[in-house]
Specification:
The longest helix has about 55 residues, at about 40-95. The chain has one domain. With about 260 residues, the chain is mainly α. The protein has helices at about 10-35, 40-95, 100-120, 130-155, 160-185, 190-210, 220-240, 250-260. It has 8 helices and no strands.
Length: about 260
């Protein structure tokens, strides 16, 4: 996977830096506009306002597009949790089709697997060592369950018993792989950088337009910048599973742990 520059930095820090850069760009634009104020007529001011409106429209378009992209990825991850929980639940129920003693053995292994998947979900992305250890444990436990399924298949090769269990076990492993893939899927960082560039340039244009006028409206500009940064924070938080404020609901997996499946 390609290296992501901003993903390792705190979302609040990124948004704070963006807010300062927008204000700085606005101030720089204001000073330039103030310098050219006396040399500017009404036609130039009107053209500047038109360009400013177009830039803000572009900003809104890119912002909405990026927010929708981050929200779709968040929804996909939420659906992946439900899909994996359903796959585990089906596998857990089909353990009753296995001959003894493999039915009780696989049930115990699956309960351990549920606890392990919950531990993975509750472990922060920044805890790299813990994440790698849990990933290795998951693979080892999947292998153990598969070995028990093969043993059960040798004892009872009927497709309507052991065969059903093996099919659901395959689905469970596939669901885990799909969920891992979705966790690694983020909004392309080039879009985030483009968003930031448009924000900063918009701030400069707003400041420039204010400089061409006789009076400056700093407070509305600061409030607009703050609102934009809040939306950016939500986008970044949605795009950062297991490390942001917005968490994916694990209720479906928790129900398996309590036996409500």
């Amino acid at each position: 996977m390609a290296t992501e520059i901003m993903y390792d930095y705190n979302s609040i820090l990124i948004v704070a830096v963006l807010f300062v850069l927008i204000l700085a760009a606005g101030e720089a634009g204001y000073q330039v506009g103030k310098h050219y104020q006396r040399k500017t007529d009404q036609d130039v001011k009107a053209q500047t306002n038109t360009i400013q409106a177009g830039t803000l429209g572009l900003l809104a378009l890119i912002l909405g597009f990026t927010f929708n992209m981050a929200l779709q990825r968040y929804n996909s991850r939420s659906e992946a949790v439900i899909k994996e929980a359903n796959a585990i639940g089906t596998t857990l129920m089909r353990t009753h089709l296995l001959p003894a003693p493999y039915d009780s053995v696989t049930q115990n292994l699956l309960q351990q697997y549920i606890n392990l998947r919950l531990a993975v979900s509750n472990t922060s992305y920044a805890m790299v060592t813990e994440q790698e250890a849990l990933s290795n444990e998951t693979k080892a436990l999947q292998s153990d369950i598969w070995v028990e399924a093969v043993k059960a298949a040798h004892l009872d090769p009927r497709p309507v018993t052991t065969g059903f269990f093996i099919t659901s076990l395959n689905d469970m492993i596939d669901a885990q792989s799909e969920r891992n893939a979705l966790l690694a899927l983020h909004v392309p960082e080039v879009i985030i950088f483009l968003l930031f560039v448009v924000f900063i340039m918009s701030g400069a244009l707003i400041g420039y337009a204010s400089g061409l006028g006789r009076k400056r409206t700093f407070l509305p500009f600061a409030l607009l910048s703050l609102l934009i940064c809040l939306v950016v924070f939500i986008i970044l938080d949605l795009d950062r599973p297991k490390r942001g404020i917005i968490k994916i609901n694990q209720a479906s997996m928790e129900q398996l742990k309590t036996g409500d499946n």
